Write the structure tokens for this entry.
Amino acid sequence: MKNVYKNQIVKCDTVEDLLIKQSIEILSADENSLLENHLKTCVHCQEYQNQLVSIQSSMTIDQKSQLKPDPAIHQLLKQRMNAFKPIKHRTVDSPWQRFRNILEYRIPVYQGLIGLACSILIFVAINYFSLSNHQQTRSSEYSINMADTTFYQINVINNLQIIEQQKIGRNVKEDSLLTRFIVSSM
Amino acid sequence: MELIQQGDSAAFDELYQRYSQRLLYYFYRMFGGDVEKAQDFLHDLFLKIIEKPGQFIAKHRFTSWIFTVAHNMCKNEYRRLDVRKNSEDKLDATASKFDYEYTRVEKNIDQKIFENHLLKELTKLNPDYQTTFLLRFQENLTIKEISDIMECSEGTVKSRLFHTTRKLMNRLKEFNPSRVEA
Ligand SMILES: [Zn+2]
């Protein structure tokens, strides 16, 4: 770069490019001195420089400009923000109120869960209080299958069979209750 | 920005005060002087901030982030309108929307005409070039910051600035209000 511009007549095109380059980044010392020397005498390039400055400076935002954001936009955004972020400082609700709040949720997760829990409770209750003969057999089979696995379980099942042979219960229902109790405590 | 994520409305107000006019100008200049569209885009951009504040990555400077979002909005809109494929007539029509009343009030009419032609010429350029030019000379950002926003090298930013400036200079020769015939 050092000798490129020395002792040669610089064309205005080159200076124009240098002027643009100068507005974007820092020029080398040689480029700067070339520009300064050329601009001293060339009216065309002086004009070019003026126009360049006016183009670039007209991009800055004038605070007096009448182009302002519509005040309605700010209002709309604030409303949206308040709707989006509800106020956190609420009084502490009573447990009953909290429960009601949960039930008021739009997403029916809690209702579903409560429904499921109720169904399980009802199912267990029905099974517990009204076991038929068929169910008793099935539960015995089930306990035998379970008993295959461990030594302790086999022991318990043997005991259970003894108890069954001795007919410890007064009727089928009582027998089944006792069987369930033994199996569940394994 | 973190405060906004927590729903702090005072923080939002400050952010709005600081950026709304700059972004309005950006959209106004990107959309050929369409004030209504610029206002709509300003609204939509801040709505994004309210509704999805998690999109902001704290390691970035907020200015960079918000102008990245704004630029992407413009590019999507350009794509939607397919402006680039349209004829110069369409561009002339949009560019004519630049309104004298929105330019600097204290300037004389020649300067206003000059500025309107400048903005009209700017909208004829590729949106990447437009944004690069506006970020440099409207927002006064550094080459490095612009390269982060535009996701390109600093060399590309410099070259875009150079070509945009030269194109504008060539097209606006006859509109220089202070021009003296040599
Ligand atoms: Zn010259």
Summary: Chain A touches chain B at residues 16-17, 20-21, 23-25, 43-44, 47-48, 50-52, 54-62, 64-70, 73-74, 76-78, 80-82, 84-85, 88 (CB under 8 Å). The pocket of zinc ion is lined by residues A 12, 15, 38, 42, 44-45 (CB under 6 Å). The mean pLDDT of chain A is 75.
